[in-house]
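Ticket #4471: structure output looks truncated?

Reporter: J.K.
Steps to reproduce: submitted the chain below (394 residues) through the standard prediction queue, then opened the result file.
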Amino acid sequence: MKKIFILIIALLGLSGCYNYRELSDLAIMTAVAIDRVDDSFQLTIQVVNPKKQQDPSNANQPDFVVYTTKDKSLQKAFRKVVNMAPKRVYAAHLQLLVLSEKVATDYTDEIVDFFIREPEVRDEFQVLVAKGSEASDKLEVITPLTTLSSMDIFNTLDSNKKYLGSVSSVTFNDFMHAYLDPNTEMVLPVLEIVGDSDEGKKQENVETSISSANLKLASMAIFKDNKLVKILDEDDSINLNMLLGELNETIIQYECGEDKYAAFEIISSDSELEVDPEKNKAIFTITGHASVNEVQCALDLRKIEVGNKMREELNKTIKNALLDTINTIRNDYNTDVFGIKDSFYKHYPDYFKKIDDKWYDEVFPNLDIDVDVSIRLYEKGNILGGTEYDKREN
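Returned output as attached by the reporter:
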């Protein structure tokens, strides 16, 4: 009798999920854009077209379908999709959340509150700011190399982070923790359209070798008190990511002669921040490796002294650029996106209690911030013979 009872309990455990749904009954949402229109939230939802994905004979059908709704609350705006979609929209595979500049400036409270409460959505989707036109436009562009614009954005975000470094990946989990932490400020990658956004929504956009519109990820947006304050340019974005330790690879160049440049590929970089309450000082230490990729000046790269001189110029160029970015962000926008306040909080809690309430009024504007850069050249990147300038340490 006891064995039968155990068997019944085991069978009950194999009865399946209580909220099981057939995949054919769902519309898979891959991205959502949020704008503010007429005192309401406007949602633009990108859904995969399963007919096109499953049957190549449906060549004339689009790869994705876009639904747009609007209401005073995000919850009701999402629910209104049922008025248009023949299937239940499923959000567990959401990849991207794109916020307009207006929403990123004034409505981050509502965004975080909604997505924290939504049980179906995972917190690993990417969050971006849409520059210029409405966020909805970014999801409606038909992209040439991938069938879904959301996948195009997702892949571009990954490749930019690996090879250029002007953007960094920010998941909703990262976004939420920065929002909730009073000692950190948010940063988000920026998405924009290059070209004619209206033409980019037409199928003809992918039927020519030169598209009328392309999606571009090229910079970062900085926040203060959970409000968007500035979209940086590409160079400042690269510098910020280097300071934050988010840079994998990029290209740095300096003028080695009149209208002639030396270009270096940063292969790896690391950033460490130290703070000193007694000296009211913060110092970033940047280390890493680089290779010489292009030299337009007449230099003999086989000579060690030439390599040493180039390394000095490279490190000087990086240091000056990083200091310029720090001063621009601090002097013009007074936002600590560098994590300096958080470093004081973690390493000097007693001192932090004294300066917490006056951080932006007195402490941060007068803080001595310096940068120490030590990038080593380990490869000449040319066909001439000679010795490596530095051996790369693994």
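Triage note (M.O.): checked the attachment and the full token line is present. The longest helix spans residues 304-333.
Status: closed, working as intended.
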